[in-house]
Design a protein that fits this description.
Strand order of the largest sheet: 1-2-3-4-5
Largest sheet: 5 strands, mixed
Structural class: alpha/beta
Number of helices: 9
Radius of gyration: 30 Å
Strand content: 5-15%
Order of helices and strands: HHHHEEEHEHEHEEHEHE
Number of domains: 3
Number of strands: 9
CATH class of the largest domain: Alpha Beta
Distance between the termini: 27 Å
Length: about 270
């Protein structure tokens, strides 16, 4: 499902909720009006003039109870819907997908290299230009299965050309699997072709979920990470960012064994992409 389709579906759903709320508010007000009207008219009658259980009053109570219950249900739904939206915003923020959107193609490839190496994969570079359709080759840590990867950090949906490239690369690089990873989405033609050719697709939603889980694990085990800083800098980095990988090669770099140690030495965490 494309971004526009999801937005349209979400808007349609919200409009339906708004209509239900408005309709229930109207009937609740009507029920109160009916109930109060009959109550005022009954107060003007003697007790002997009233039936044992006046139907209009019972009807008013039923309406009030029914639509009041629906109003409570809608309030509960609105609360959990809001919690869901907050959770989605948190997921987007932790995943770093918005920072990925501003990466160049090379930065995105480097980012994926660090990610897969942290997961235990061995990553082979295909040499940039003349890569024959594969940006990276992944070797699984246990099975040694080879996977060719096309990395597309674009501002538009990935088209069929990527399928042709990675399918060709799968044979040329002697791989068992082929993946296309993007920060965007795929056209319908790409999805249908990828399914027929058994090509795995990582769209924006899947990439966000993977990066969210990855960064959450890193945050929980931050004390086991290694951080680097230059003597002249007040900022420290780790291997998840380009600056961290560069300064890690410097001879006189300061190394911290955990996050707390770096903070206690007056340094602050970089704002580079993660």
């Amino acid at each position: 499902m494309s971004k526009n389709q999801r937005r349209w579906k979400k808007k349609k759903k919200q409009n339906l909720v708004n209509k239900i709320i408005a309709l229930n508010s109207f009937f609740i007000a009507l029920s109160l009006f009916v109930f109060m009207g009959f109550k005022m008219s009954n107060n003007q009658l003697s007790t002997s003039d009233l039936p044992a259980d006046p139907l209009p009053i019972s009807y008013g109570f039923v309406l009030l109870s029914w639509f009041g219950l629906q109003g409570i249900v809608i309030l509960i739904y609105s609360y959990f819907n809001r919690q869901k939206r907050l959770k989605e915003k948190h997921k987007l923020r932790v995943s770093g997908i918005q920072k990925i959107d501003h990466m160049t193609g090379q930065q995105f490839e480097d980012y994926l290299t660090v990610y897969f190496e942290d997961l235990g994969y061995r990553v082979e570079d295909t040499g940039g230009r003349g890569d024959r359709g594969a940006d990276k080759i992944l070797i699984e840590p246990v099975s040694n299965k080879r996977i060719c990867v096309q990395a597309k950090c674009w501002n538009k949906n990935v088209t069929f050309d990527a399928v042709q490239q990675v399918f060709t690369a799968k044979t040329l690089w002697n791989c068992e699997e082929a993946w296309i990873i993007t920060n965007r989405n795929f056209t319908k033609q790409v999805r249908e072709s990828a399914q027929q050719l058994q090509i795995q697709l990582w769209d924006r939603e899947k990439l966000t979920s993977k990066m969210y889980a990855y960064n959450e694990r890193k945050a929980q085990s931050g004390s086991h990470s290694v951080y680097f800083a230059l003597n002249s800098s007040s900022v420290f980095h780790d291997l998840s960012c380009e600056h961290g990988r560069n300064i890690a090669k410097v001879q006189n770099v300061i190394t911290y064994s955990n996050y707390e140690e770096a903070i206690s030495n007056g340094k602050k965490k970089c704002s580079c992409y993660k």
